[in-house]
């Protein structure tokens, strides 16, 4: 696998993705988004444009970007995910071992489009602000950041929270005031309430979610407020819109168009 540099990998969540690697898509999961979703991500992307996909797990989006003849960079903080994707996809992309919660993890003003599927729901709020800053900084003037996201709790969160409440361990799993979940607080019993993911062994799946640690769940309007703060702090100008993602239920797409 050819890579062009490695940024400091500070985020312990990387170990979760190192744990699963290719089994994330090899065992009954297609590495979404849907075909229709890929079309929305790549709307307006032309051959020869510089595109970054953040997250080596999004196999469909990587393949769709290559079919557009984009000059593609795939960035991930998991060396294992990058290696396994390179084995699957080959040399059509550049693979960058990078933690986007670290400043300058991506080259500045380098990409016409930066794409990520469900990435922002996997961070704490502090990590999310750093990641969004890094991603916007990597856009060329007139470039676009396109990220899927979900407002509120995930369906899988509900039985975990309910079981934690029943056990008197809610505070270890769910911070209602901050609106964060942390499956590591359910490590001893998570496998009893977690739904199967394809053919991934439950023990591996439990370890994966435990290692992901604390994650923020978004409130309506929270992303807009966060981006307003980022724009003011960096003296940036960009337009923010939200689109409905086809065939994904509650997921939406955040589009940040950077101005010159």
Query: N- to C-terminal separation?
Result: 35 Å
**Helix/strand class:** alpha/beta
Helical coverage, percent range: 25-40%
Output the CATH homologous superfamily of the largest domain.
Answer: Vaccinia Virus protein VP39
What is the CATH topology of the largest domain? Rossmann fold
The CATH architecture of the largest domain can be named as 3-Layer(aba) Sandwich
Outline the fold blueprint.
Blueprint: E1 3-6, H1 14-20, H2 23-26, H3 35-41, E2 50-54, H4 59-67, E3 71-76, H5 79-89, E4 94-97, E5 111-116, H6 125-137, E6 139-150, H7 157-166, H8 170-173, E7 174-175, E8 180-182, H9 202-212, E9 214-216, H10 222-234, E10 238-244, E11 251-258
Parallel strand pairs: 1-4, 2-3, 2-5, 3-4, 5-6
Antiparallel strand pairs: 6-11, 7-8, 8-9, 10-11
Brief characterization of the structure:
The protein is an alpha/beta fold. 34% of the residues lie in helices and 23% in strands.
Architecture overview:
With 260 residues, the chain is an alpha/beta fold. The chain folds into 2 domains: 3-152 and 218-258, Vaccinia Virus protein VP39 (Rossmann fold, 3-Layer(aba) Sandwich); 157-216, zn-dependent alcohol dehydrogenase (DNA polymerase, domain 1), CATH 1.10.150. Helix content is 34%, strand content 23%. The longest helix is centred in the middle third of the chain and has 13 residues, at 125-137. It is globular and about 55 Å long. It starts with a strand and ends with a strand.
């Amino acid at each position: 696998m050819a890579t062009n540099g490695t940024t400091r990998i500070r985020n312990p969540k990387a170990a979760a993705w190192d744990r699963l690697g290719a089994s994330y898509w090899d065992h009954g999961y297609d590495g979404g988004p849907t075909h229709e979703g890929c079309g929305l991500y790549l709307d307006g992307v032309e051959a020869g444009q510089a595109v970054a996909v953040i997250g080596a797990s999004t196999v469909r989006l990587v393949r769709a970007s290559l079919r557009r003849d984009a000059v593609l960079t795939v960035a991930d903080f998991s060396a294992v995910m990058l290696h396994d994707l390179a084995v699957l996809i080959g040399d059509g992309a550049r693979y960058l071992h990078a933690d986007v919660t670290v400043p300058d993890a991506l080259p500045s003003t380098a990409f016409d489009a930066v794409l990520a599927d469900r990435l922002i729901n996997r961070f704490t709020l502090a990590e999310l602000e750093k990641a969004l800053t890094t991603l916007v900084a990597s856009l060329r003037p007139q470039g676009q950041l396109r990220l899927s996201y979900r407002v509120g709790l995930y369906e899988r969160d509900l039985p975990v929270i309910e079981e934690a409440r029943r056990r008197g361990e809610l505070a270890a799993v769910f911070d209602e005031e901050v609106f964060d979940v942390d499956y590591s607080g359910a490590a001893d019993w998570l496998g009893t309430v977690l739904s199967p993911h394809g053919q991934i062994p439950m023990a591996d799946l439990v370890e994966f979610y435990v290692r992901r640690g604390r994650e923020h769940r978004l409130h309506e309007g929270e992303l807009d407020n966060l981006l307003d703060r980022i724009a003011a702090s960096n003296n940036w100008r960009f337009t923010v819109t939200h689109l409905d993602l086809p065939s994904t239920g509650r997921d939406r797409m955040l589009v940040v168009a950077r101005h010159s």
